[in-house]
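Your task
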Amino acid sequence: MAKGNTWLRTLIELIEVFFNSAQQNKKGRTWHQHVVPYEEGWAVRREGNKRITSKHRKQSTAIRKAKSLARKYKADVIIHRASGGIRERISYNE
């Protein structure tokens, strides 16, 4: 009977770990939009994504697109310089 309790306890711990990690993944995802240099122009990329959301010839066009998405999802826009460093951060959290 002790072995049965150990197995059940292990199963409960595994289920708790699974659900806790699922909760953390939901909290970890954001809708912050990054305006980054891309090929010959600029791109908008959601934070944490490898793929770009959209690409643009001008940085100003990419910024407009990123602001639109950030307003919709109450997120931030992070504008990068051509060198890759962060130039500005605009918050639409409210």
